[in-house]
Design a protein that fits this description.
The protein is of the alpha/beta class. The protein has helices at about 10-20, 35-45, 60-65, 75-90, 105-115, 130-140, 170-190, 290-305, 315-335, 340-345; strands at about 1-5, 25-35, 55, 70, 90-95, 120-125, 145-155, 190-200, 210-220, 225-230, 245-250, 250-255, 260, 265, 270-275, 280, 340. Belongs to the Gfo/Idh/MocA family.
Length: about 350
């Protein structure tokens, strides 16, 4: 059993308290931290959080609990200072994505975690779904031979689906696309080499910054990935993880994941389309701890066993996904110029 504190009980943190943490039996909550009394009172009133376990500062929680894990579920700009302080206090940390706003901050936290001998994990929850897990295994096994081209489409209409962050900078690339960028690296088992990206804000959009974009990403093993995404699409809605077509030398792997829409959840899907023969729609094994419960369960497992599983989204690994965010934003700011990943990673 891993004893934990949660830091941040706001909108998304409340969701963690309600929908995620109770479903992971290997985690025992011994403290909750939030500086806003109203937020804390809501968690107490609606979720039955024990007032004796609530603290207004991280230092208070550290003095009065024996937690070893900090679950950081705050707004993005608070990630860096809070995660840094947690590591300094000796906590292992799991933090929501993106775990920092700059590569330099991310590298600093990774170095600090290593110096402290602590585990730093980023909650890249899209990895913990049946379709991308199988897709990654198929690619690793060389099914259909070397990959040639991958296409990924994401379509949602934010104004009609409850989206509310109209003034967020880079609402597509920084807030949504990081999930897709992380899946690219996870499924392909490869790192990007360079990319070009264009973004725009269509007429009549309620967004202040660009909600639509296209990118071409070249990976180190030669795969070229075409990415098209929009928060203001009037086309058919895609699953949250997008629609993927992965073209190999001997056939295609087609899949989609996280098919949540209007509080309904559909199954992940994956099919094999060989050059010769019939299409084969795979039966996907359920994941014991899917989505965010998967990230929390995984770090608890790592802390209990000391064994780091394949595909673990450590802070160090996640620098690659954060770099894709930074590189696409940089390319878009330059009108679509090619950006080498080395420029962003330093």
């Amino acid at each position: 059993m891993v004893k934990a504190i949660q830091i941040g009980l706001g909108h998304w943190g409340f969701s963690w308290t309600k929908d995620v943490i109770p479903k992971v039996p290997t985690v025992q909550m011994v403290g909750y931290v939030d500086t806003n009394p109203e937020t804390t009172q809501r968690a107490q009133a609606e979720l039955g959080v024990d007032p004796k376990l609530c603290f207004s500062s991280l230092e208070d929680a550290a003095r009065h609990t024996d937690a070893v894990l900090a679950i950081c579920t705050l707004r993005t700009e608070a990630h860096y200072p809070v995660v840094k302080r947690c590591l300094e206090l000796g906590y292992h940390v799991i933090v929501e994505k993106p775990f920092t706003t700059t590569i330099a901050q991310g590298k600093e936290l990774v170095a600090l975690a290593k110096a402290q001998g602590r585990v730093l994990m980023v909650s890249q929850n899209y990895r913990h779904q049946p379709a991308p897990i199988l897709a990654a295994q198929l690619i690793a096994d060389g099914t259909f031979g070397p990959l040639n081209m991958v296409s990924l489409d994401f379509r949602r209409h934010g104004p009609s689906q409850g989206y509310r962050y109209w003034d967020m900078p880079d609402p597509l690339l920084a807030d949504m696309s990081i999930h897709h960028f992380d899946l690219m690296r996870f499924v392909l088992g490869d790192e990007p080499r360079r990319l070009t990206c264009r973004t725009w804000n269509p007429p009549g959009s309620p967004f202040r910054f660009d909600p639509s974009g296209v990118a071409t990403i070249e990976f180190s093993k030669g795969t070229v990935l075409s990415y098209r995404a929009s928060w203001v699409s009037s086309g058919p809605v895609t699953p949250w993880a997008g629609e993927w077509v992965m073209d190999g030398a001997e056939g295609e792997i087609i899949w989609s994941s996280r098919d949540h829409f209007r509080n309904k959840q559909g199954p992940d899907r994956l099919a094999l389309l060989p050059l010769e023969g019939k299409a084969d729609r795979k039966k996907l094994d359920p994941v014991a701890f899917p989505d965010r419960t998967g990230t929390l369960s995984t770090i608890a497992q790592v802390l209990e066993t000391g064994v780091v599983p394949v595909g673990f989204s450590s802070g160090e690994d996640n620098l690659g996904s954060l770099a894709l965010v930074q590189a696409t934003i940089l390319s878009a700011s330059r009108g679509g110029d090619w950006v080498e990943m080395t420029e962003v990673m330093g």
